[in-house]
Amino acid sequence: FYERWKFQHPATEAWFSALNEVFPKWVNNLFQSMILRNDYLDYEVVEIKNAREESRGTKILARNNGKIFIPVIIRLFFADGSYRDQIWDSSSKEKIIDYQEQRPILRVVVDPERKILIDINYSNNQIMIGKQNDIFKIIGEKYLEIVKAFAHWF
User: Fold this and answer.
1) What is the CA radius of gyration of the chain?
2) What is the pLDDT averaged over residues 147-154?
3) DSSP one-letter string for 99-152
């Protein structure tokens, strides 16, 4: 970009054109949404529907309430302590995960490592099932996330 435009005055369109040449299209859309418009991003896990015992299926609905889209990880936590990641990489407003395994899902989290800093509401990024909704457990997990994030600075 510098070599092409040195000693000249590029317009905003030139900057976005250079972004398109180097980065994927979603990066250009992100910058346009944040610079030219006042758009926002808000991922939400809306619901988990466990099907009947015979089918053993689970449907998970996640939604982007904002107008900006960034590819994101949706993490499914299971009763045995393991987890599985799904990548939501299309620009659709909703993502439906049709999970067909026998392991019961306890919790679903969008952006579990909080890499997307511009999400305006982290409180709706996860949903838990059953006894996992213990408020003290949630507070404890949030406290550990804060301690981990603080430790990265030192």
Assistant:
1) 20
2) 74
3) E--SSPEEEEEESTT---TTBS-GGGSEEE-GGGG-HHHHHHHHHHHHHHHHHT
